[in-house]
Amino acid sequence: MEMIRMNGAGNSFFVLEDPEGELRRRGPGALARQLCRPEEGEQTDGMIVIIPAAGDEDFGMLFYNADGSLGEMCGNGARCAARYGVEHGLVRDDQQIRFLATAGEIRGRRITEDLYEVRLNNPSVVDRHRLAVTPEETVPCCYVELGNPGIPHAVVRVGPEAFEDLDALRERGRALRYSASFPKGANVSFVCPTGESCVRAITFERGVEDFTLACGTGAGAIAVSLGESLQVAMPGGTLSIRLVKDGGTVKELYLTGPTEVECSGTGDLTEA
């Protein structure tokens, strides 16, 4: 089976097509664990399986975390999937890309060869005053779920000094990720404003169980928590989030950022 390694602002994925369902019958989670967490070599954050459209969409997308669990959606992964669909002839109109993820329909468009925009799922839960309890502390945060079923995110405000000790911040993120305050667990984004409509952020991702270079839905959750369109500087690059609101309600949520095709190859499913 052919597979391509792509990244969106450093957030890395293997992308595979499964037109006949062979991989789905064998169990994609096992292959995701095998590919994303090799004994030697570079870790990858997740695996995207491109499947035939269920309706009149261009295609479908299944996203698997590095631990093999099925994720509801992935913002940077969706941008990579959009580019894959365009470059592999799956898309009818590169300005109106439509595909279906577990969390719902995703719409996107090609801006340049490398730059893609996708519309993220609207927030289904916004709790601006959630208290996240861990054995060490109780942390005020904004809890956001994007889509239905929702992707859970906790947004925690920190000062700029927090980014000077990433090991300590990682342990804090790990504890918060498993807090009983989040029934489904949560992706945990630490965020610090740096200027007008600009923030610095890093996300401890559920399923990867570590910081990633970028998190698209995390950037979206940060913008929802702050109630404005943002430039979100993450370790792998800057993501742009555009909010369209009606009063205080988010009606549309758009993520724009770079994509990169790193390499391609073939794999054997016999071990999956």
Low-pLDDT segments, ≥5 res: none
Percent of residues in helical segments?
10-25%
The structural class is alpha+beta
Terminal-residue CA separation = 12 Å
Return the average pLDDT rounded to an integer. 92
**Strand percentage:** over 45%
Nearest-angstrom radius of gyration?
Answer: 18 Å
Biggest sheet architecture: 18 strands, mixed
Helix-strand sequence = EEHHEEEHEEEEEEHEEEHEEEE
How many beta-strand runs? Answer: 18
Shape: globular
Oligomer: single chain
- Total of DSSP H or I helical runs spanning 4+ residues: 5
Structure description:
- The structure is a single chain.
- By secondary structure, this protein is of the alpha+beta class.
- The protein has helices at 22-26, 28-36, 75-87, 166-177, 216-226; strands at residues 2-8, 11-17, 46-51, 59-65, 70-71, 97-101, 104-110, 115-119, 123-133, 138-146, 151-157, 187-195, 198-205, 210-212, 230-234, 237-246, 249-258, 260-266.
- It has an 18-stranded mixed β-sheet that branches.
- A hairpin with a 2-residue loop joins strand 15 and strand 16.
- The protein is globular and about 50 Å long.
- The chain starts with a strand and ends in a 6-residue tail after the last strand.
